[in-house]
Design a protein that fits this description.
about 100 residues; alpha+beta; Arc Repressor Mutant, subunit A; two-stranded antiparallel ribbon; globular
Length: about 100
């Protein structure tokens, strides 16, 4: 169980609770979120996230990561346009800020 400011992630049950409300994530959204929260504060490029989270045989455009981050923000963040958890590091990629 990983717990951050208002966010609880149960990796065994693959459940996420935000501010005491369970949210539904797709399998890939969960995998991406879990990877980022497992490395808090570490910044990853879209290519690094594609390699870590998506199947190596899956040849998708790295903008797929951008779409998944946007969807996660819509589900996790109080204000997706000013994210608390999923931060963009301009010109580099994304990181999870658990503080």
């Amino acid at each position: 169980m990983l717990t951050f400011d208002g966010l609880r992630i149960d990796s065994d049950a693959r459940e996420v609770v935000v501010r005491d409300a369970p949210i539904t994530l797709t399998a890939r959204e969960f995998d991406l979120l879990y990877y980022l929260v497992s490395h808090p504060g570490e910044t990853f490029t879209r290519d690094q996230l594609m390699e870590a989270v998506w199947d190596h045989a899956f040849a998708a455009d790295p903008s797929t990561v951008t779409v998944h981050v946007r969807r996660l923000r819509e589900k996790l963040e109080t204000n997706p346009k000013q994210p608390h958890y999923l931060q963009t590091v301009w010109g580099v990629g994304y990181r999870f800020d658990g503080e």
